[in-house]
Design brief:
binds 2'-deoxycytidine-5'-triphosphate; two-stranded antiparallel ribbon; 14 helices; binds magnesium ion
Length: 331
């Protein structure tokens, strides 16, 4: 009888791709803590814990109301014991000891710093940590160990760790669109990634490029990058060409095989001066911004758009959902 007086349990589908997950949700305080634990697990190479904390956070993001009482967790999927404990701690004390201890630890702070460098993943960061390196200064003293990408990442570290705002992404899109139109009239430039999900800022800008006539997009990317470079706007670029289409190795992984370019562009704050700026050399009337370009034939565009809109967790869930459906259908 008591139970009947409580709020009815929220029905929650098991996969993130089956639910509405608004950008602004009601449990930010809780999800932030769980995502810190996910990140810390990732730093320790614990993929299982990484995904468990992410799952729990994702469920809380989809709730219609703030969690104020542990009974509200009843019947929700993917809230494990550890996540429950953290939530309880946060409800009772406002902070979680475990989370605060991690955030203050040298290990977490150093791994966070290193993985924030463009071109540095968890494995590299961990190796540097094990070698006793702790700061960007330490890294530069050991610069023989750095790739060209990491060198660029450290060189532009401050700019690249300043959020890119939507109006800046829009202004960069205009610069890119102008060049793309010159190189291939009728081609389209679409802003994807976090901005397409409505985020007000992000860590980079993701562009998809295609043309309504299949095949015309071939060779476009190198022309566009060459033109941007001649304008002094390219601080770093790394182009990835599609592999042999008969190569099925990548099909079983989460990687796509589109032609792409990972770049750092110089974004001038006063657009009129862009053509006579020396790359990277200008005074502070601009900033370095990470920009990714992905070019696809129109027949592949829908899939590229789905894959590059994200979030990363949504894409992961979509793959898991599809695979499980396939298996269920085969049984
Ligand atoms: N993506 C993915 N798997 C990866 C990397 C990316 O599925 N390992 C997809 C989903 C991402 C999108 O590409 O949402 C863009 O990648 P970003 O890393 O730029 O992610 P976001 O744009 O979502 O975040 P941010 O706003 O920080 O740039
Ligand atoms: Mg992005």
């Amino acid at each position: 009888e008591l139970l009947k007086n409580q709020v009815p349990p929220v029905s929650m589908p098991a996969y993130a791709c089956q639910r509405h997950t608004p950008l602004n949700h009601h449990n930010f305080h809780l999800t932030e803590a769980l995502e810190t634990l996910a990140e810390a697990a990732d730093f320790e190479g614990s993929q299982g814990r990484f995904i468990s904390f992410h799952r729990a956070a994702s469920v809380l993001k989809a709730l219609p109301d703030p969690i104020t009482n542990m009974s509200q967790l009843h019947g929700l999927p993917h809230i494990g014991d550890h996540s429950s404990r953290i939530i309880q701690e946060l409800l009772e004390h406002g902070v979680s000891n475990e989370v605060e201890t991690i955030k203050l630890s040298k290990r977490y702070q150093t791994m966070k710093l290193f993985t924030q460098i463009f071109g540095v993943g968890v494995k590299t960061a961990d190796r540097w940590y094990q070698e006793g390196l702790r700061t960007l200064d330490d890294l530069q003293k050991h610069s023989r160990k750095l790739t060209r990408q990491q060198e660029a990442g450290i060189h532009h570290f401050e700019d690249l760790n300043t959020p890119v705002y939507r109006h800046e992404a829009d202004a960069i899109q205009q610069i890119v669109e102008e060049v793309v139109q010159q190189m291939l009239p009728g081609a389209r430039v679409i802003l994807a990634g976090g901005f397409r999900r409505g985020k007000p800022h992000g860590h980079d800008v993701d562009f998809l490029i295609t043309h309504p006539v299949e095949g015309l997009e071939a060779g476009l990317l190198s022309k566009v990058m060459g033109r941007l470079e001649s304008q002094g706007l390219v601080l770093y670029r790394h182009t990835q060409s599609p592999k042999n289409p008969d190569n099925t190795a990548f099909q079983s992984t989460a990687m796509d095989d589109y032609e792409k370019c990972f770049s750092i562009l110089w974004f001038p704050k006063s657009p009129t001066t862009s053509s006579h700026l020396e790359a990277g050399e200008s005074s502070r009337d601009g900033k370095a911004v990470r920009v990714d370009f992905v070019v696809t034939p129109i027949s592949q565009f829908a899939f590229a758009l789905l894959g590059w809109t994200g979030s990363q967790y949504f894409e992961r869930e979509l793959r898991r959902f599809s695979l499980n459906r396939e298996e269920a259908a085969a049984e």
